Amino acid sequence: MNDRTKAFRRAIRELATVAYERELGSALESLQRHFSAWREGEMSPFELTDAIHRFHNGIARELHNQYSSQSFLEAAVAGAIIRGTIAASEIPEAARERLDELTGPDSPFRGD
């Protein structure tokens, strides 16, 4: 199924961008808690630097790799749908059928 329509490919790219932004934002909220702890004196500057380093080399890199690989973008978007990052109501019609296939028997599309 490599002959996807232009509308499908565009929908997948747009959904991937939405999912990436939401998941990265969530991860940054977690990092923000480290900054707050540092400001409150509950964490040393060295511990904060270590947390930033772990963030950069961990979740930030994982998310970048997940949402920048064109060959796995459909699967990444399907995973975001399963995790609830993207709601079924946000899926354009052009991508609905294929994403329904990828999300399996517990597809959120079946509840619409």
Structural write-up:
This protein is an all-alpha fold and 112 residues long. Helices cover 71% and strands 0% of the residues. It has one domain (6-111). It has helices at residues 6-39, 45-68, 73-83, 93-103.
Task: Summarize this structure briefly.
By secondary structure, this protein is mostly helical. The chain has one domain (6-111). Helix content is 71%, strand content 0%.
Topology:
Blueprint: H1 6-39, H2 45-68, H3 73-83, H4 93-103
Helix pairs in contact: 1-2, 1-3, 3-4
Characteristics of this structure?
112 residues; mainly alpha; 71% helix; elongated
Low-confidence stretches are none
In total, how many domains does the architecture comprise?
1
Element order, helices and strands? Answer: HHHH
Proportion in helices: over 70%
